[in-house]
């Protein structure tokens, strides 16, 4: 039977990979418009970083990390998300000291979580995310959400919902936390094992529980909105009014909490309302994490970001029936007839390619008919046919596939001729 790919991973083959490249290019293009620069960090980090930053009460840390000991007896973990590494790098490289602030970064790369695989949930998946560090201006919260929405919208998605909430600042969260404990404690026995643990460690996350989401106490749970201090309330109002001014639609969901420990103030998710998208409707999530840089040994630094997986983005494109305008055809396929023409072909093809043409030829010693078929398969715009007679006369015949027009061109002019046509 041979070897099989590990569960929850994918091979992305030619024919599909073009979609990935298209989407990645779009993300990069939008980042450059918003002045976010790429950062590339290692695929693995010291395990301690994730315990510290993601938080040891989260699903990621408790159940999902790929952790291993290397030959030097260090505990390392394949990164489950991108924020921790980005903030680690920001602190380690003292990016906060650069004159240009805030520091606006983006990343695209594989993340690893030991999860039960299903549509939209993999063990290796690619996240595109951004982080803006150093500013607590509410307009950057709006910018981060706008950028995420732009990626989806510009790719052609329409059935999108931006869901917004605030988690308040430390003080508001503390008051809310106490209220949550008081609310759930008397009947915590009716909740799942995880929620029972969460009651003391992180009661906010009870609201995020997938098993107990229909319990009656969930609907009556105290809302963070009743515990916001003035500063947190004002912050939230400004974020909302900025989005409104920008013409970006959103809905408020007071029960939206994020899985990770380090969030405060703004929290948001972008959902797909497309029919057939499946059980998982969240396309991306993000929020503000003031305090994270300090938590991992840096200066107190406000920060905000989001992450989306490209897997879910591509699923949403399928669900909405969006076809990406991918151009993958060759400019020219070179057909050679006869020994002398075959000998001439490699250098002629090389000349095409050096001039910037996307070009190819046969390498399977195919008959003429089969060479034309191969040319068809590559969707070549032009087929250049080099036969014995043409070669002897120093010419080549060039056929435009769309019109069927065929022209004889001097060999030394053929490259320029095709360049002029495309
Ligand atoms: P979920 O509730 O779906 O488990 P999460 O809270 O774990 O999501 P985040 O940690 O916020 O997700 O990650 C941000 C984004 O990364 C998600 O919105 C989703 O697009 C994507 N994502 C997370 N886990 C996976 C996975 N296992 N496979 C594919 N994409 C994922
Ligand atoms: Mg998850």
Automatic annotation (TrEMBL):
Pfam families: HGTP_anticodon (PF03129), tRNA-synt_His (PF13393). The keyword Cell cycle does not apply. Signal peptide: none annotated. Keywords: Aminoacyl-tRNA synthetase, ATP-binding, Cytoplasm, Ligase, Nucleotide-binding, Protein biosynthesis. It is an enzyme of class 6 (ligase). PROSITE patterns: AA_TRNA_LIGASE_II. Residues 1-325 form the Aminoacyl-transfer RNA synthetases class-II family profile domain. Its EC number is 6.1.1.21. It is found in: Cytoplasm. NCBIfam families: hisS. HAMAP family: His_tRNA_synth. Homodimer. PANTHER family: HISTIDINE--TRNA LIGASE, MITOCHONDRIAL-RELATED, HISTIDYL-TRNA SYNTHETASE. This is Histidine--tRNA ligase.
């Amino acid at each position: 039977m041979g070897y099989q790919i590990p569960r929850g991973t994918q091979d992305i083959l030619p024919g599909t990979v073009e979609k990935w490249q298209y989407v990645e290019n779009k993300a990069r293009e939008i980042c450059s418009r918003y002045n976010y620069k790429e950062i590339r960090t290692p695929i693995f980090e010291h395990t301690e970083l994730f315990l510290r930053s993601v938080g040891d009460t989260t699903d990621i840390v408790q159940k999902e990390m790929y952790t291993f000991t290397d030959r030097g007896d260090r505990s390392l973990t394949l990164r489950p998300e991108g924020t921790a590494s980005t903030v680690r790098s920001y602190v380690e490289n003292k990016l906060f000291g650069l004159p240009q602030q805030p520091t606006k970064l983006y990343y695209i790369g594989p993340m690893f979580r030991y999860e039960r695989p299903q549509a939209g949930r993999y063990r290796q998946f690619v996240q595109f995310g951004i982080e803006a560090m150093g500013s607590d201006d509410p307009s950057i919260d709006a910018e981060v959400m706008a950028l995420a929405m732009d990626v989806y919208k510009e790719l052609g998605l329409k059935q999108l919902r931006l869901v917004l909430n605030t988690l308040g600042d430390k003080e508001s969260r503390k008051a809310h936390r106490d209220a949550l404990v008081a609310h759930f404690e008397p009947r915590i026995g009716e909740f799942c094992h995880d929620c029972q643990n969460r009651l003391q460690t992180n009661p906010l996350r009870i609201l995020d529980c997938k098993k107990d989401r229909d319990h009656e106490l969930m609907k009556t749970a105290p809302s963070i909105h009743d515990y916001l201090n003035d500063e947190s309330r004002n912050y939230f109002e400004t974020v909302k009014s900025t989005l409104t001014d920008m013409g970006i639609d959103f809905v408020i969901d007071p029960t939206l909490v994020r899985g990770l420990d380090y969030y405060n103030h703004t929290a948001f998710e972008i959902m797909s309302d497309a029919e057939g998208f499946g059980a998982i409707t969240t396309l991306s999530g993000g929020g503000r994490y003031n305090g994270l840089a300090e938590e991992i040994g840096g200066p107190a630094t406000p920060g905000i970001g989001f992450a989306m997986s490209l897997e879910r983005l591509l699923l949403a494109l399928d669900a909405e029936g969006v076809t990406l305008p991918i151009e993958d055809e060759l400019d020219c396929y070179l057909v050679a007839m006869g020994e002398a023409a075959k000998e001439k072909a490699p250098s002629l093809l090389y000349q095409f390619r050096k001039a910037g043409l996307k070009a190819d030829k046969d390498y399977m010693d195919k008959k003429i008919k089969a060479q034309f078929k191969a040319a068809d398969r590559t969707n070549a715009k032009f087929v250049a046919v080099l036969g014995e007679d043409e070669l002897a006369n120093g010419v080549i015949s060039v056929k435009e596939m769309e019109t069927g027009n065929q022209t004889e061109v001097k060999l030394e002019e053929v490259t320029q001729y095709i360049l002029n046509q495309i």
